[in-house]
């Protein structure tokens, strides 16, 4: 999570090997991405990484089953009907194999997109605001599905969201500001996430740094608006003898 423009999508794209970082390193399932040729990177992305977006990006003329089978077909494999049926069942869409996207609700379309991302058995499933285009009830269903994939199947999921309720379904929330790490929460609650976000989105500047320190005293955690404000806030806290 982080304010608009803080680098969430950029981080996700670097982590998924869609973009190359100018500094730092990315490893997927123990494989460092830096040394890989474009071809090997493409193969790793295809075989080890799943990606779902806010828009479902399904091909409207294909059935749910054909959409789900597409990544394997592009890899030159012909998936069995059972394989496709099983992955659709995993996301709660048993019996919908022959439906086209236009015949499915938004939540069901996102589940097809999830099944398509899962068919290659990826090491990590990335989601860039996967519930952003859904109403709150449908969004909650998709979040429950993601949570179930983690709890039931041991699937690793990394997602970007603007919604504190969605973030609170995660085990760990990482906050970004201006392209930098700005704190994290373990076992988050929606209230704790919202409070942290409110602090991160406070206006910048010297006065804001003092305001940010006040928020940090409330939550017991340092809150930063920029890297400079971070050290300013930390210094202020330190000089005042720590959080009151
Ligand atoms: N670590 C970084 N170093 C340099 N540039 C960065 C970094 N992170 C992000 N940027 C740049 O900041 C801009 C905004 O980043 P990005 O779109 O990833 O933000 P976002 O948090 O996903 O925003 P939104 O919530 O509006 O979608 C982009 O132009 C990106 O290239």
UniProtKB/TrEMBL annotation:
Gene3D superfamilies: P-loop containing nucleotide triphosphate hydrolases (3.40.50.300). GO terms for molecular function: ATP binding. Residues 1-203 form the ABC transporter domain. It comes from the Bacteria. Keywords: ATP-binding, Nucleotide-binding, Transport. SMART domains: AAA. InterPro entries: AAA+_ATPase, ABC_transporter-like_ATP-bd, ABC_transporter-like_CS, ABC_transpr_LolD-like, MacB-like_ATP-bd, P-loop_NTPase. CDD domains: ABC_MJ0796_LolCDE_FtsE (cd03255). This is ABC transporter ATP-binding protein. It comes from Streptomyces roseoviridis.
